[in-house]
From TrEMBL:
Signal peptide: none annotated. It comes from Psychrobacillus soli. It comes from the Bacteria. It holds the Pfam family Acetyltransf_1. One of its GO terms (molecular function) is acyltransferase activity, transferring groups other than amino-acyl groups. Residues 88-236 form the N-acetyltransferase domain. Keywords: Transferase. This is GNAT family N-acetyltransferase. The keyword Lyase does not apply.
Amino acid sequence: MQLFNLIKSEKAYWLVDQVKMEGESEEDYKEAFTKILSAYEEEQIGYLSLLIDEAFESWLLARGFRKISSIMEYTKQLDDEMELEEDLLFYSLAEGFMTDAEFSAAYELCRTGTANKNIHQPIEQVMASIASELGDKWRSHCYSFFADNKLVGISIPHIEMGTQDEGRMFYFGVVPDMRGQGLGAKLHKLTLELMKKMQANYYVGSTDESNKHMINIFKKNGCTLRDKKGIYQIEK
């Protein structure tokens, strides 16, 4: 039984996310994660970032981890019809409306000045991770949104690794000078609809507990709080 999802970026980093299972004890999780940590140490990876229940915090801090922040996780069933906005246009990167470099620049712009406390990876590393995690057709998951021919934001919907129908967003963001106009909720709702077309039956999204704007977007679009986890990191 898989108690953690693990994403590896060669020698740069490992991203580990706890999968909460009924009937599994804290000791089960500690044993499973200790094996992952041992492999990380043996392979001399740059850093390991762990998303896990905060009940493990003292145990992790004693092992040399530092806490980055706390993450709020929201979910929504995607079986209901949503009224979509008609004043926004959107294109996937696969359609050729943008180049890879232009989408990369849009991503960098959107993550500027956000409330999330997690450490930003270099944008080149982020784009490499998208291609690695989403596969050969990764460009078909990368969407840019426009209003009156002006870039509003981007999102990257996909089906979560190891599942058949769990929708996730690799990233979602609005450009700085378009924030505070209600556009974030519109983009988020459109992205949920794109997930449905990918055969997602439900959505899971998360954000830093300090990102009140994103939390309001979740609530506005009918998402409910599912969980809270801490982000912990260790470096070589």
